[in-house]
Design goal:
By secondary structure, the protein is α/β, with parallel strands linked by helices. Helix content is about 40%, strand content about 20%.
């Protein structure tokens, strides 16, 4: 069975905080650069996309750039929200978790998935507020949802439902 390459010259990601495009250029194999907009991967010829090692390299490179973007943009927003709400946070880590967008430990540490950069900002904010609310209520009780609703304009459950339309299969 021949597997189709995950990334091709036509692959694009067009999220608010993470854009990806491929561009043919005179480079050796593949090279990637990140700027304010996102990531540009330069490739010498379309044939390089058939190389399994190149596919792995692209995935690892995109994950590294996504991790950096979360640290630059989402972590400061999280800490700002925490300060506005008077909530203490005992550290923030960026993980490569694909099954969960974020988590909060009982010790007050928050983990954010690097895949959050693929979400629209209002859903990123929902995840950040969700994890901060766990600093007050370490469960998903009615009190938790009521507190989260207070900072989500009464739309917490609608936002949770909207989240189900997104996945981490882009990277």
């Amino acid at each position: 069975m021949i597997r189709r390459p995950r990334y091709t010259p036509d692959t694009q990601i067009d999220a608010e905080d993470f854009r990806l495009r491929f561009e043919q250029k005179d480079v050796s194999f593949v090279r990637a650069e990140m700027d304010e907009e996102g990531v540009v991967c330069y490739y010498q010829s379309p044939e390089v996309f058939a190389d399994k090692d190149i596919q792995v390299w692209i995935t690892k490179t995109l994950e590294a750039f996504a991790r950096k973007r979360v640290k630059e943009r989402l972590v400061p927003r999280l800490l700002n929200m925490a300060e506005e709400r008077g909530i203490s946070v005992n550290g923030v880590r960026v993980s490569s978790a694909k099954g969960r967008w974020g988590s909060c430990s009982s010790k007050g540490s928050i983990n954010l998935s690097l895949y959050l950069v693929l979400l629209p900002r209002h859903l990123q904010d929902y995840v950040l507020q969700h994890e901060l609310t766990h600093r007050i209520e370490m469960n998903h009780s009615p009190r938790f949802w009521a507190r989260l609703d207070e900072v989500c304009g009464g739309k917490a459950k609608a936002l949770r439902k909207e989240m189900r339309g997104y996945n981490t299969s882009f990277l």
